[in-house]
Amino acid sequence: MKQFLVIGAGRFGTGIIKELYTKKADVVVCDQDEKSLDEIDQYATHCVIGDFRDNDVLDQLDIDEFDGVFIAIGTDAYSAILITKKIKERNAKKIIAKAITKEVGEILINLGADRVVYPEEEAGMKIARQELMTGVVEYFVITQNVSAVEMEVPEQLWGRTLGELGFSKRYNLNVALILRNEEPLTAHFAETPFERGDYILIVGENTKIEKFKKKFY
């Protein structure tokens, strides 16, 4: 079972904590606010009240034993920077840190963060993409030119299968999943005719996804 440390139990940190909990991971959470910890206690393996800028608090835990450390500090850039430095000095295996600006993100990377996330910016971009792409439910960026998109199966494809359509060859896109009644079809879905209300998860180049969208939506 994987073990993670989450520093900060605000909205961003709480999202991380709950998702790790659903995936059966051990989660240790640290925050200065006891009330915040009380609200997520049911999802955490262990909670630590304290300021991780303080070496005495850090020394309570064996940082190098965690599979990953999430630094989910809110708007306090100085604290995020200082904690990232201290966590790296204690040989953390992997550090994922939140940043509110690109400048802060660059500093965190230089101090040893393996990944920096910009949740507000990424959320805004995701919403904009969904609004621009009719029929899109979820939009996931994989690389600069490749994405994964969940969309409702267009009416023109109802009653036909991926195999009959020659979907991958015709549209230069891959269907990774078909959802029916919010459940994935797990067996032989390439031979299963589409039904009204089905959703597909398409993976491919952004230009090809855009072309598919324009054709059917």
Features:
25% strand, 217 residues, alpha/beta, 5-stranded antiparallel beta sheet, 9 helices
The biggest beta sheet, please?
Answer: 6 strands, parallel
The overall average pLDDT, rounded, is: 88
Instruction: Spell out the helices and strands N to C.
Output: EHEHEHEHEHEHEEHHEEEH
- How far apart the termini lie comes to 44 Å
Roughly how much helix do the residues carry, as a percent range?
25-40%
Identify low-pLDDT runs.
Answer: none
What global shape is seen? elongated
Strand content: 25-35%
Please work out how many helical segments DSSP would assign. 9
Strand tally, please?
Answer: 11
Structure description:
The chain has helices spanning 11-22, 34-40, 55-58, 77-89, 102-111, 119-132, 162-165, 167-171, 206-216, and strands at residues 3-7, 26-31, 46-49, 68-71, 95-98, 115-117, 136-141, 146-152, 174-180, 183-184, 199-205. The strands form two sheets. The protein has a six-stranded parallel β-sheet with strand order 3-2-1-4-5-6, with helices on both faces. The N and C termini lie far apart (44 Å). With 217 residues, the protein is an alpha/beta fold. The protein has nine helices and eleven strands.
